[in-house]
Give the backbone structure.
Amino acid sequence: MSTREATRAGWVRRTRVAAARLRRLVLVLVALVMAAAATACGTAGEQPRIVVTTNILGDVTRQIVGDQAQVTVLMKPNADPHSFGLSAVQAAELERADLVVFNGLGLEENVLRHVSAAQESGVAAVEVGAAVAPLTFRTGDDREEGRPDPHFWTDPDRMRTATGLIADQVIEHVDGVDATAIRANADRYEGHLTDLTTWMETSFDRIPEDSRALVTNHHVFGYLAERFGFRVIGAVIPSGTTLASPSSADLRSLTQAMEEAGVRTVFADSSRPTRLAEVLRGELGGRVAVVELYSESLTAPGEGADTYLRMMRANATALTEGLTGGPTGG
């Protein structure tokens, strides 16, 4: 091979190698562009995010939203809404939400500052309790008098109002949802709530008028009492929050009120120890039944109150049996 031919052969080989490298580079670049496009499409295709603070409102919101958005509930089953807190990850979820649904009226005492921070950063949020004609506490305690009562969910009629409100907020603030589907889901769930009210009325009809007196571990059933004609005699913890504690004077006052009203049943939240109610039983010489209710939190699946509708039916049954059957223990 001549020098010229050798030079030409070398040039051909180098050209082919360069061309191969260029093809590989082009393929790599094409792959990267396709991956980036796929990622962008995946991000664009992600469902909108709704974050709900309490598990009771979380259940209702899921019934309304269906498969139209991702619903994240911050409060775990069997937790206390007055005292549960958030992890850093959960706090960040609030700031990334398309809509935050919270109870408000001071209920989520350790979470509301995070909700406020999300609102300040531009996240839409709805305080459900403030929009359902809230009651104020009537506890006879100057510290509580005039404060809004956050426990509106014990009245299913107010929960029906809350259902419509949440549906409106989802349609207004969450892009990409099907408004027709949201409305249909809300209408269907409102029908279930109407049926629940009728069923509770029928259940409570078994309780004589003079026996419709409630003593609870803290003030949580004011809305139910107003809606269904009960008298609230008092609470072991004379406050709207479980973070308070009763004094010996509080217990003496309550036992006197119970004696005067002839009340022998105390209803205590099943997610909290019943020690205080047991103390009250001791004050009255053991002549008191302590009946557990699901008052402020849903349970884990299969534990008896894993949805709002099941919780309310379980409570109505327990209230009716507790006030018609007399003490069951002690």
Remarks:
- The chain has a mean pLDDT of 82.
